[in-house]
Amino acid sequence: MENSEERQKLKEKFKNQLLKHVDLFNAAVSTGEGDWVVKGFIDIAKNIYTISVDTKVVSKIMELLLFPKICQFAEIYNYKMVLCEEQNHYPDITFIDENNNKFAVDIKSTYRITEEETRNKKLLKDGMKIIGNKLNEIIRFTVYRNNEPFCNIEASMENDLKQKSDSNNLTEKEHKEALRILRKLKKPVVKVNGMTLGAFTGYFRDRKSSKNIRFPYEEYYGHFVLGVVYSRADGLLDERKIYELKDLLNITSVVKDFTFFVQEKYKIATDRPGSGNTKNIGSVIKIDDLISGNGPFAELGEDIFDDYWMYYLTKDMARAVDLKGAPYKNLKEYKAYKKLKK
Questions:
Q1: 212 to 88, 90, 272, 303, 310: CA distances (angstroms)
Q2: Which residues of 181-197 are buried (b: 16+ CB within 10 A; e: fewer)?
Q3: For the segment 220-276, what is each residue's pLDDT rounded down to a tens digit?
Q4: pLDDT for 43-87, tens place per residue?
Q5: φ, ψ at 201 (rounded to 5°)
Q6: Could you tell me whether strands 269-273 and 280-283 are parallel, antiparallel, or unpaired per DSSP bridges?
Q7: d(Cα 293, Cα 172) in Å, to the nearest integer?
Q8: ∠ at Cα 178 (172, 181), nearest 5°?
Q9: Is the peptide bond before 296 cis (omega within 30 degrees of 0)?
Q10: Which of 9, 59, 100, 104 fits a 20 to 30 Å CA distance from 135?
Q11: Does domain 4-110+214-299 have CATH number 3.40.50.150?
Q12: Which residues in the chain are classed under CATH 3.40.600.10?
C-alpha cells in the first residue's frame, strides 16, 4: 500500500469523483418537486400497492434505483465494481482502480426526525404521554392518559394550541407538555434517526480476515459512506389501499426531499454503538455534521478511530473476558485511559 500521503491523495481523488455524481443520484430518485419517483409495486393486473415507510424497504429500493448511476460512475472513471456476495457483508460495493487500489463504499440512508414525544419520567409514571408529529407547518398531537389514547389535536401556533387544549379539556400539565413539543418541532429539522456504519468486531479487528467482507479490511485504501437523508411523507398513509394505474400521479410518495453526501466512515462515526445490542458503529445524527464530516473522530484521525473501536467492549464483551467493566465507554474515558492530551 502507498505511504500515508499518497494514500490520502488517492482517497481525496476518489471522494471528489463520487461527489461530482451526487446531482445524478438525486435525479435518479426524485421528481422536480422533490418527491420520490417510486409510488408502489405493480402486479400483472396493473394494481399498484403502496410502499411501506419501513427504513429497510426504503433503503433497499434506493440501492436499486441508484445502481445504474453508480455503474455509470464506475465506467466514467474506469473503476472495476465488485459487489458484496451476501446482504449483510461489507461493503456494499468495492471500487478498484487501474492500479488495484480498493475503495469501500456502503450506501446508507436515514430519515429526518420530525417527531417529538414526552420523555419526562415523572409525567410518564403518571400515565401521561404526548407524541407530536410535524406535518409541514402543522403539528399533530396524540395525547395519552393512563397509557391509552385520549385525543388528537392539530395546531400550528401557540394560541391555536391553547384553544384546542381548552376545547379538548387538557390539563395544565398536558398543555405545557404539548407547548414544549410544539416549540421544539417548529424549529428547523437538524437531526436524523442515525445509521450504522458496519461492525466493530470480526473483520474490523482481524484485518486479514475475509469473513463477512469482500476483501480483507487492510486491503482498502479508504472506507466511504454514500449517504441519503430523506423526509418521510406528511400525514397518515394507508398501506392497505390499492390504486389503479390511472391514479399513479395521485399516489403520495412515502419519502421525499433527498440530500446526498459522501464522507469517509471515520469522519461521521460517533463513539457509541449504532443499534441496540448489535456490535455496529454508530453515526453522528446532526445533518450538518454528516454532510461536512464533522464527527468526533474527524480531527482525531482515522488511526484513533481504528484504535478506539478495535478495543471497544460492550458490557457483555467485558464480562466474557472476566472484566468488571469496559476500560472506556466514550471518547472522554478513552482519552483518559490512553493518557491522550487531545
A1: 7, 6, 22, 22, 17
A2: bbeebeeeeebbebbbb
A3: 999 999 999 999 887 666 778 899 999 998 888 899 999 999 999 999 999 999 876
A4: 999 999 988 888 888 988 999 999 999 999 999 999 999 998 888
A5: -120, -170
A6: antiparallel
A7: 43
A8: 145
A9: no
A10: 59
A11: no
A12: 4-110+214-299
- pTM > 0.85: yes
pLDDT 10s digits, 63-75: 999 999 999 999 9
Hey, what's the cell of 301? Answer: 484521525
